[in-house]
Amino acid sequence: MAVMTTCLWFATQAEEAAEFYCSVFPDSRVLAVDTSPVDTPGPKAGDVLTVEFELDGRPFIALNGGSDPEYTDAISLEIRCADQAEIDHYWNGLLAGGGREVQCGWLIDRFGVRWQVAPQSLYDLWRGEDRESAARAFAVMMDMVKLDVAAIEAAAAGTDA
Question: Lower Cβ count inside 10 Å, N or C end of the chain?
């Protein structure tokens, strides 16, 4: 069976990025650091070409492509969190070293990669049968930067946080 792996392109920071992500996600590790066998438009022979790593058991590859990638909001990595403590952990961890907050649970890390950090409970509300509750939760979420689980749940219930 084929294995699907997310490949993240970096100018020259593949190893730094992989180590950074592994420091944020539990049960994560660098599996292999491969060097370029020949001079390329990116790395020269002997420089790091790719880094294989796992984030919480999911496979990733970081590639040194030699030019800065232009990441956009069209592709993001989503983290569905169990509670506010998890949201805070990933939010703060991924912003470390120069990331920036966006809106609605989105952030851009210091390498330019887009992330969504959201509670699973928000998706559960959206999928529920109470459409008014879902609409209230969605409306309050739209005004947030980092998502606040208590405020979302209070809005869904029709009460103040």
Answer: N
Tell me how far CA of residue 24 lies from CA of 53, 90, 110, 152, in angstroms: 13, 7, 13, 25
pTM for the model: 0.92
Element (H, E) at 156: helix 149-157
Phi, psi of 124 (to 5 degrees): -65, -40
pLDDT at 3 over 90: no
Distance between CA 33 and CA 11 in Å, rounded? 16
Residue 91 phi/psi, 5-degree rounding, is: -60, -55
Q: How confident is residue 161, by pLDDT bands cut at 50, 70 and 90?
A: low
